[in-house]
Amino acid sequence: MAKDNLPAQRSSARDIDAFLKQASRVPSVSQANGRLIFAIDATMSRQATWDRAANIQSDMFAVAQSAGGLAVQLVYFRGFGEFQASAWTTSAGVLARQMQGVCCLSGGTQLCRVLSHAQSEARRAKVGVVVYVGDCFEESADVAANEAAKLSLLGVRVFMFHEGNDATARAAFQEIARLTNGVYARFDPGAAKQLRELLTAAAVYAAGGARALKNYGETAGGEVLRLSRQLGEKK
Prior knowledge:
- The chain is built from 9 helices and 6 strands.
- The protein is of the alpha/beta class.
- It has a single domain, classed as von Willebrand factor, type A domain (Rossmann fold, 3-Layer(aba) Sandwich), CATH 3.40.50.
């Protein structure tokens, strides 16, 4: 019987050894010190930022490694009510493949649903940080505040990363950050360096806490240091 599903060539002992060594460097989800929900608005206006985030996200895992490792869950919404949450992963490659398979579609924001979902995840196992990347807000500010307050009771901080200058979004995002003892940071459209620094700061905090972020911020400077100082002011 033909075995069409088998590889044409067998892997060499060297190839297998290299694969096993690489796999051993990636901690399991249960071994990771920190858990971070990475939530992105994937409505139509967001495609360029989505692509940048897909290229940058591996930095989150890299900087968090020295603080004990990071497990990430990708959450996004798009279209008319579509809401997706991935399995938790400690692999930058897995997360990149998940993100590369997504195209942004027109639709309304679902930030309240993100906050509600984060509550469910935090009740199952500790979640250190929710990172949200978006540019607008089209929901009830009162409902969002209520969901944020519930999340705060579970000990989860929300890092609200706001692209652009929309005033309605700014007010809602700042209130969510305040209620969860998180942080609000604005970045310019197309600013990959700013976004990279913000995401890595969140990853360091999720994996190692405020002290790890403070130490990293003193070395990295920029947005990382600013976020570290914001958190320090909330003690």
